[in-house]
Amino acid sequence: PHLGLAHSMGGCIALTGAIEGWLPVSRLVAVAPMLGLSMVKQEAVAKAAARTLTLLGFRSRFVPGGEARSISVLPFEGNRLCADPRRYARNAAIAAALEGDAIGAPTIGWLDAAYRAMARFRRPGAAAGIRMPVQIIAPSEDPICSTPTIRLFADSLPPGSLTLIPGAQHEILMETDAIRARFWAAFDRFVDEPSRRGSSSAVQEVEHRAM
User: Fold this and answer.
1) Which pLDDT score, from 0 to 100, does residue 131 have?
2) Model pTM greater than 0.90?
């Protein structure tokens, strides 16, 4: 069987495919899926502004404060991605080598499309169309994607479909060895027993042991 592993925006797309029935895998692991944005503090204002500016023809402009430079090349201190300096430096070196081909800040058109894509996950019964086993693995300290929104969506999935990784930031697979070990333990449990769904108390036990 084919297993899907999707992160952030990829997680949003993969979960959309699972809901609509076109995702060509039999099981899915979604890591910090983009179901809401925690980095935007005034969501209603940002959403309305992105929609309006897109309709006015500004879709290719960067969001306010954004630039072509990748955030991966910014200083490690205070970064929004991970707590592992070695892995952060590795990705920073790759982004620097790519120069203009590295992904920069979001555009207004991207933000508008993202809000429209994320809206469906807040609707009642949003996960009703999912027919495959899904495991969502979310960081507890994600400054980019909204973990509370992920948890609300996971409530509509079978119990045990959510594993929370304490202390992790957005890029779980760039994190410290200890955090990555927790991720791979949850991943392996899901892969080894794809049809078994644990109880919600089992999820709480994972969170407690990881702390």
Assistant:
1) 92
2) no
